[in-house]
Amino acid sequence: MKTSFTRATLLLAALVGTSGMAAAPTEKISDGVVKIGVLTDMSGPYSTLGGKGTQVAVEMAVKDFGGTVLGKPIRVIGADHQNKADIASAKAGEWFDNEKVDMITGLLNSGCALAVQKVAGDKHRITMNTGAASTDLTNKASTPYSIHYVYDTYALGKVTGQAVVQTGGKSWFFITADYAFGQSLEGNTTKFVTALGGKVVGSVRHPLATADFSSYLLQAQSSGAQIIGLANAGTDTTNAIKQAREFGIGQKGQKLVGLLIFDTDIKSLGLNVAQGMQFTSGFYWDRDDASRAFAKKFFAIHKAMPTMDQAGAYSATMNYLKAIKAVGTDDPDAVMAKLKAMDISDFFAVHGKIRVDGRMVHDMYLMEVKKPSESKGEWDLLRIVKTVPGDEAFMPLSESTSPLVKK
Amino acid sequence: MELSFQTVMSQVMLGLNNGVFYAILSLGLAVIFGLLNIVNFVHGALYMLGAYVALLGYTMLGPLLGKPDFHLNYWAALIVAPLVVGLLGVGVERTMLRRLRKFDHLYGLLLTFGLALIIQGVFTNYFNVSGDAYEAKPEALNGAVNLGFMMFPKYRLWVIAISLLVCFATWFVIERTKLGSYLRAGTENPELVKAFGVNVPLMITLTYGYGVALAAFAGVLAAPIYSVSPVMGSEMIITVFAVVVIGGMGSIMGSIVTGLLLGMVEGFTKVVYAPASSTVIFLIMVIVLLVKPAGLFGRES
């Protein structure tokens, strides 16, 4: 029985191989190529803040890394998940099975991100999520192969929620995107608002990509709440803010607070409309010399300054490739172990650290939109009011419900 | 949420704003059904097409003609889009719908439904599913008017006013003029009307063209309020068909009044129990069908 003999030796070899980490894997780079997939909203409400720009950032990182790792080429592919979880998970499955994709990044839209993270976890492939926000990604849905890189609804709700309540915004009404992300953001913000003695007087849910916010805004107005919290993102947020002005809402007594705002949203609203608004961000292009240098290079290609999602995708890709180089293989377990041990310091994060639950902990910033008179250029939109250390901004491991956290 | 006068009135006002779109679209459907006996399922797609004529006329027509500074402005779009879509409708009637006249209207429904899927599919392929903003709202209609109980954007007031005008003008022409009486007679007994020297086939073609032009007109009116997307029509058409069924198939005044009323009912539902607002129209449809199967304004045959 020659075949069973070979099978037994192979099995033995495999056992030896896994038991001793030092034993070199037969193939250092699986399939002879490192492939990175950018799966995100390329055409919908979030495409301006992520979309093609995220792919541009990933391609920049690959180029800056040198285009090869351990002598093998690095390839980038992109696809539009159209904000549909079924399309996202089918695409991810196809990429892992047929296209030999090693890592997926981008993943705007929490519904899509949760679906893809599940597929990736089952297939032992890495996701480095820069776009989606739900805290479920690092809690009950976390896998040994998932990283949540840029921000989440806990940090957004905590930093913005506390800042608003402390300056007198005690009663809130939420206008919330009706899917995983919006619900998570509303829930997390509510926790911090009520903890400081604020109260939530009501909320209304709208479908993703809503064009007409007028009736939701009128409900918010008649609730009498001081703060109208927008637990949505992208064009949903900008549409709501623009229409609020049309109906004269948010000018007398009531105030609109965007809980997730990107530079591109401010650009679309204009400083006249947006001035004075405060929100939380994981990155701002004009923070220091390193971030400005990256932003300049990015702008030359994409004709817009990088958002935190786009900058995060560059940083995630770069550190992923560094980890592969350091461990000498693209084996997902080895790379994840390295990533979780690395100090992540670059133009994006200062001493960032990827925790056991996949949460990348780094400083968050409370931002304020400049007055038109303070702005010195087309993209001179914001200033950093406060830097919140990562350990304060993100959910502590003691509150985690991740199966990876031992208690 | 307390039922204050202000809250109710502002939602009802917004409801009226939606209601005029229901009215103008269901009016087109009623005219077409009444005179051609066709359930025009392509109506939503043509409403979308009207919005795209306005959008592309503003953004792409200039560069296409080699004059990058040329933009088809809003007022011109209000005329051009219905004309373009109306002509398309005339083409469709002449080449396709005409052949189905002698068959059951199920065939017309299937044909127009197929056309709707094709048009929507093509647009989904080339354009942003989540919609593009139409930025050409005229300067004169910017800003808001204080109605006492709320600030109401001028543009929406304009939409309400012009839509009501177009609806009642259409009703007047069909129900109160000689031309209208020819139209109505032509559907009752085409042979007899032909004998009087009236060109009935031409009349039918033009009626279809007018019906779909109304859809395109509504599309242009909607463009600055909602974003222009390939699916804007399919989202609208389901509700509009419910309106037509409630009003009574083919009843001109019925479709206008029902459209306005149901828009306001929807608005009022948002005050009482917001999540029900998207289903309240269908609930009313079920009740009306049970109690008065021909619709509120329909005649039992």
Percent strand of chain A equals 15-25%
Oligomer: heterodimer
Radius of gyration of chain A: 22 Å
- Overall structural class of chain A, as computed from helix and strand content, comes to alpha/beta
Category from helices, strands and their pairing of chain B = mainly alpha
Task: Report, as a whole number of angstroms, the end-to-end distance of chain B.
Answer: 45 Å
Q: What is the typical, i.e. mean, pLDDT of chain A?
A: 92
Topology pattern of chain A, helix = H, strand = E: HEHEEHEHEEHEHEHEHEHHEHHHEEEEH
Provide the descriptors you would attach to this structure in a database record.
heterodimer; A: 407 residues; alpha/beta; 6-stranded mixed sheet; 4-stranded parallel sheet; 14 helices; 15 strands; 18% strand; globular; B: 301 residues; mainly alpha; two-stranded antiparallel sheet
